[in-house]
């Protein structure tokens, strides 16, 4: 499909466009996406009841994201949510 020289030219263009600082971040993101895609493809090939309990959530390892409002106290039980304006 592509030869070595074409791939080298594409790599050089990508480095020039994105910059060397963002290249590791891009590679990390592509690796995570590939792992998720592989896990989903494997899950689709498995039979419905294969190995795990029916209805049990599947865990896909990835990045943990914290919400910006995680430190604020939430509404008390039985009270409507407050407006954070």
From TrEMBL:
HAMAP family linked: TatA_E
Superkingdom classification of source: Bacteria
Keyword Hydrolase: no
Pfam families in UniProt: TatA_B_E (PF02416)
Coiled coil regions, renumbered to chain: none
Subunit structure: The Tat system comprises two distinct complexes: a TatABC complex, containing multiple copies of TatA, TatB and TatC subunits, and a separate TatA complex, containing only TatA subunits. Substrates initially bind to the TatABC complex, which probably triggers association of the separate TatA complex to form the active translocon.
Protein name (record): Sec-independent protein translocase protein TatA
Disordered as annotated region, ranges: 43-85
Database matches in Gene3D superfamilies: 1.20.5.3310
Topological category with respect to the lipid bilayer: Single-pass membrane protein
Basic and acidic residues bias: start-end ranges: 60-70
Electron transport found in the keyword field: no
């Amino acid at each position: 499909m592509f030869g070595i020289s074409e791939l080298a030219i594409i790599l050089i263009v990508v480095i020039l466009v994105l910059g060397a600082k963002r290249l590791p971040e891009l590679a990390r993101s592509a690796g995570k996406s590939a792992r998720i895609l592989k896990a989903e493809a494997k899950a689709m090939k498995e039979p419905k009841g294969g190995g795990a309990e029916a209805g049990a959530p599947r865990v896909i390892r990835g990045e943990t994201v914290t919400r910006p409002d995680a430190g604020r106290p939430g509404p008390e039980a039985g009270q409507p949510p407050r407006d954070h304006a």
